[in-house]
Specification:
- By secondary structure, the protein is an alpha/beta fold.
- It folds into two domains: 114 residues, 3-Layer(aba) Sandwich (Rossmann fold); 198 residues, Rossmann fold, CATH 3.40.50.
- Helix content is 44%, strand content 14%.
- The protein contains 13 helices and twelve strands.
- Strands 1, 2, 3, 4, 5 and 6 form a six-stranded mixed sheet that branches. The protein has a six-stranded parallel sheet with strand order 9-8-7-10-11-12, with helices on both faces.
- Helix 2 packs across helix 13, helix 3 packs across helix 4 and helix 5 crosses helix 10.
- The two termini are 40 Å apart.
- Bound molecules: nicotinamide-adenine-dinucleotide.
- Nicotinamide-adenine-dinucleotide (NAD) binds next to helix 5 and helix 6.
Length: 356
């Protein structure tokens, strides 16, 4: 793939390669779009099969961050960093400080955070060299409870759209995965007096925790979670679980959960859900609570303000569902329209010159 053609086609601004001789740090930062603000996206460390695979992953993830931030109403653009390496051997203080220096060299056009195989502890080392890093210990904290809160409000919006009422108490739920986000989601649903909740999990520790804390929440085997006769199916485990095999099994009227990239193929499986009359709450809109939370670190962090902004996922999803209906497109496509509209509108607002 010719990178310049790809950048032109999808509107990328910058691809930055870096290599640090002392630590062996190798990576790439992609800045997709900074119309709304600095590009923010985590740093992923992965042993990619090839350099081409790594750069393509980074390009794809950076673009996803642009839409996620735009749809979340944040003044952020989309970016991402991938590091090429084996997480079991390369990580140490010097390695992440070297990364911090590259982040600093972009002078605020890009802000990083933790992602797959990088932790808040690693980001502390990054922070020794740059302030352009979020998700630090002692600041916005664990993003999962607030991500789950956003999913909870997104589920309420989905109920409102389908049934005309967002009341949780006479509805039934199936939650796939109760590690972090799924666990907190179940807590919110229990608190809102959900009529019935089923869950599935593959980690015995989390199964035991749920059984102990919520004996009325019923465990089912992983393969049975899709076909349950419930109102809402909430995928909170892996990506690509909405596919040719699983969608025909789903009886729920709503699919709304935290899982990133839940649709195996955005267009095909988004359309399959639409054709089956199942409302899909687009992942990058409903699971934006964690991003909204770290965004608030950029000013002085205020938990209440972050929660307040996360609650807005409710209205945002209702708008997106309306666009989908009006345009007769999938909700996933409508979410992209929503995000692009915001970017274009704000770019227009900023087109007149103001002396700074
Ligand atoms: P997690 O690892 O804490 O929880 C996922 C759970 O799913 C694990 O406990 C795992 O055992 C379980 N699981 C895996 N495969 C399963 C299967 N086939 N059946 C049943 N259970 C299974 O992860 P998390 O942080 O809760 O994230 C879940 C999803 O939400 C991921 O796709 C993640 O990218 C996305 N997400 C998370 C956040 C966040 O703030 N944590 C934010 C945005 C998106």
């Amino acid at each position: 793939m010719n990178k310049f053609d790809y950048m032109e086609k999808h509107g990328y601004e910058q691809i930055v390669y870096f290599y640090d001789r002392t630590t062996g740090l190798k990576g790439v930062t992609v800045i997709h779009n900074t119309t709304l603000g600095p590009a923010l996206g985590g740093t992923r460390l992965w042993n990619y099969a090839s350099e081409e695979d790594a750069v393509m992953d980074c390009l794809r993830l950076a673009r996803g961050m642009t839409y996620k931030a735009a749809a979340a109403g944040l003044n952020l653009g989309g970016g991402k960093t991938v590091l090429f390496g084996d997480a079991n051997t390369v990580k140490n203080e010097a390695y992440f400080r070297a990364l911090g220096r590259y982040v600093q060299s972009l002078n605020g056009r890009y802000i990083t955070a933790e992602d797959v195989n990088t932790s808040t502890k690693d980001m502390e080392f990054v922070h020794m060299e740059t302030n352009y890093v979020v998700g630090l210990e002692g600041k916005s904290g664990n993003p999962s409870p607030i991500t789950a809160l956003g999913v909870f409000h997104g589920i309420r919006a989905s109920l409102k759209h389908v049934f005309g009422s967002d009341d949780i108490s006479n509805r039934t739920f199936a939650v796939q995965g109760t590690g972090q986000t799924g666990y907190y989601l179940v807590n919110y649903l229990v608190e809102a007096k959900a009529k019935k909740i089923y869950f599935t999990e593959i980690n015995q520790k989390y199964i035991d925790r749920m059984k102990k804390e919520h004996p009325d929440v019923t465990f089912v085997k992983p393969e049975l979670i899709f076909g349950l006769d419930v109102d809402v199916f909430a995928p909170c485990a892996l990506g690509a679980i909405l596919n040719d095999e699983t969608i025909p099994q789903i009886k729920a009227k709503i699919v709304a959960g935290s899982a990133n990239n839940a649709l195996a193929d955005e267009e095909k499986h988004g359309q399959m859900l639409k054709d089956a009359d199942i409302l899909y709450a687009p992942d990058f809109v409903i699971n934006a609570g964690g991003l909204i939370n770290v965004y608030h670190e950029l000013s002085s962090y205020n938990r209440e303000a972050a929660i307040h902004d996360t609650e807005k996922i409710y209205d945002r999803l209702l708008d997106i569902f309306q666009i989908a209906e009006k345009e007769n497109i999938t909700t996933h496509a409508a979410a992209k329209v929503f995000a692009k509209n915001r970017i274009e509108t704000i770019a227009g607002v900023r087109s007149n010159y103001i002396k700074r």
